[in-house]
Amino acid sequence: MNVLPKSIERRSLLSVSESLQLMLAFGGFTLTLITTIVAILNYKDKKK
């Protein structure tokens, strides 16, 4: 395999701990969003 001499080695953008924190934060956001939607739907059903 030939590698160009001018190629720039790609660096990692996020460390492992930052990636895990980001995944957990997104999971928490998703869970909160779903819980809020379910609570709103339950409130609308009880109101009828």
What can you see in these coordinates?
Keywords: Membrane, Plasmid, Transmembrane, Transmembrane helix. It comes from Enterococcus faecalis (Streptococcus faecalis). The chain is mainly alpha-helical. It has a domain at 16-48. 67% of the residues lie in helices and 0% in strands. It has one helix at 16-47. The model has no long low-confidence stretch (mean pLDDT 87).
Spatial gap, N to C terminus: 69 Å
The biggest sheet amounts to: none
Which runs of at least 5 residues are low in confidence (pLDDT < 50)? none
Order of helices and strands: H
Q: What is Rg?
A: 22 Å
Mean pLDDT: 87
Helical residue percent band: 55-70%
Strand content: under 5%
Number of strands: 0
Structural class: mainly alpha
Number of helices: 1
Shape: rod-shaped
